[in-house]
Amino acid sequence: MKIVLLLGCIALACAKRFDGDQVLTLYPKAPAHLRLIKEFGSIDGLADFWAPDTADLVNIGGSVDIRFPSNRIRVVKRKIENAGMEYEVKILNLQSLINNQFDVPRKSRALGYDYNVYHTADEVLAWTDDIAAQYPNIARSQIMGKSEENRDIKMLTLGSKTTNPMFVIDCGIHAREWISPAVCQCFVNRMLSNYGVDPDVTAMMDALTFIVFPVLNVDGYAYSWSDDRMWRKTRSNYGTVCTGVDPNRNFDAEWSGPGSSSNPCSDTYYGPSMASEQLTQVLQGFVRANQGNIKAYVTFHSYSQLYIYPYSYDYKDAANAAELDSLAADSAAALQSVNNKRFTWGAGHSSMYLAAGGSDDFAIDNGVSISYTIELRDTGRYGFVLPENQIEPSCQEIYPALDVIINHVM
Ligand SMILES: [Zn+2]
Fold it and tell me: How far is Cα 358 from Cα 131, in angstroms, rounded to an integer?
C-alpha cells in the first residue's frame, strides 16, 4: 500500500508548485503603462494573465490581474514602480491558496455524490452516467466525441421530452476554472431532483430540452488536477515546443482574429487551424446540427462576476443587443438577490478591445439569439483557486439567474 502511494500521484501531490508566486492587480493610467503590460505579456513564462485573459484586453482606466513567478516578482515590481503605475498584491503566495482550496469536509460516500466539493475529471465522467441512470425518464448521457487524450466528451440531455426547443449550457472550456464544472453539476442535480417536486423546475423541464456539457475541455481539466493547477488550454500538441490550444479562441468566429495569438506558447493560442480541437468540433457540430432549435446558449467561465454577450470579435452589436443587455440585467438582479454578489454585464467589445474565436460569438452567428459567457465568482480575492466553501453559494445564486434566462425563452 505504501509503495503504491509513493509511486502514484494523489491529487496535486506531484503537481507543479507555486510557492511565492504572486498575483498583482495593475491599474494602467497611461499609454506607457499599457506598453509595460504588453511587454510583460510578450515574454514567455513571465506573466500569466488571469483577468482579463490577455494583454490585448487591458485598457487605460481599467485593471488587470497577473500571476508572476516568485523568482521574477522583485524585478517586475521594480519595473512597475519605475513606470509610476499603481498596483496591489492580490495574492501573496499562490501555493498557500492552492493548499487551502479543499476546505469543505468530505461527506460519507453513502450520502451520495457531493456537489459541494471539486471533483476530478474521472469522477465527473462517472457522475454523468450515474446521474442519468438515476433519472432514466428525464435524463440521458451520451458520448459526443473523444478528446485528444482519448477521454470521453460527454453530454447530458435533460427534460420530459428530447424534442423540445433546446437550452445549451457548457462548463469547463478553460481547465483551471474549477467553479465552472462544479456549477454545471449542481445545476443538473437541481433540475433532475426537483422535477415533479418544484412546479417551476417541472414547467421548465416540460417546455425545454436542456443540453449540458459538464466538462468540455476534459483533458485540460484532468491536467489541472494532476500536473498544473494553473493550466488553461487543451492538451493537444502539433509538433511545437509548447502544448495546448485556447479552446475559446478556436471557434469559427473570426478565427485567428484580434485578441488571439499565433504563438503556441501563448495562453490565447488560436490553434493550427479553425476548430482544430476535438471539443470545438463537438460543440460546433452540435450547434450546427440543431440550428434553429437552440433558444439559448450559456457558457460558464471564471472569474470576474460578469455577463458577456456578443460580439467579442468585432466592434459590432448583435441585432438583439438591447434584449441581451436587459436580460443580463434582470438575470444579474436575480443573482444578487441571493447572496448580494454583484455581477456586471456588457457586450464583449465594449471593453474596447477584441477577442476572436469564442464560443458565444459562434453560437449567435449560428442561430442562437440568446448567447452569454458568464464569468462566475470571484473578483480576484481567490481567482481560479476559489475555495470549495463557495461552491454551494455559487450554485444557489446561479439557479435564479439562469431561471430568468430560461423563462425568457420558454
Ligand atoms: Zn475562461
Answer: 30
Domain ranges of the chain: 22-99, 109-409
Going residue by residue through the chain, which has 410 residues, state the pLDDT in tens, using 9 for 90 and above. 334 444 445 555 678 999 999 999 999 999 999 999 999 999 988 999 999 999 988 999 999 999 999 999 999 999 999 999 999 999 999 999 999 999 999 888 878 999 999 999 999 999 999 999 999 999 999 999 999 999 999 999 999 999 999 999 999 999 999 999 999 999 999 999 999 999 999 999 999 999 999 999 999 999 999 999 999 999 999 999 999 999 999 999 999 999 999 999 999 999 999 999 999 999 999 999 999 999 999 999 999 999 999 999 999 999 999 999 999 999 999 999 999 999 999 999 987 679 999 999 999 999 999 999 999 999 999 999 999 999 999 999 999 999 999 999 99
Counting runs of H as helices and runs of E as strands, what totals does the chain give? 12, 12
Which positions are catalytic?
A: 375
Residue type, 54: T
Ligand 1 centroid vs 177 CA: distance in angstroms? 6
**Which segments of 116-250 are extended strands (E)?**
139-146, 152-158, 166-171, 209-213
Class of domain 109-409 (CATH, top level):
alpha beta
The pTM of the whole model exceeds 0.85: yes
Residue 106 carries which DSSP code? P
Angle 54-329-381 (CA atoms, 0-180°, nearest 5)? 45
Residue 116 neighbours by CB under 8 Å, 6+ apart: 104, 107, 388, 389, 391, 392
What is the distance in A from the centroid of ligand 1 to the CA of 53? 8
What's the CA-to-centroid distance between 203 and ligand 1, angstroms?
31
Q: How buried is 163 (Cβ within 10 angstroms: 0-12 exposed, 13-18 middle, 19+ buried)?
A: exposed
Q: 160 alpha carbon to ligand 1 midpoint, in Å?
A: 31
CATH of domain 22-99: 3.30.70.340
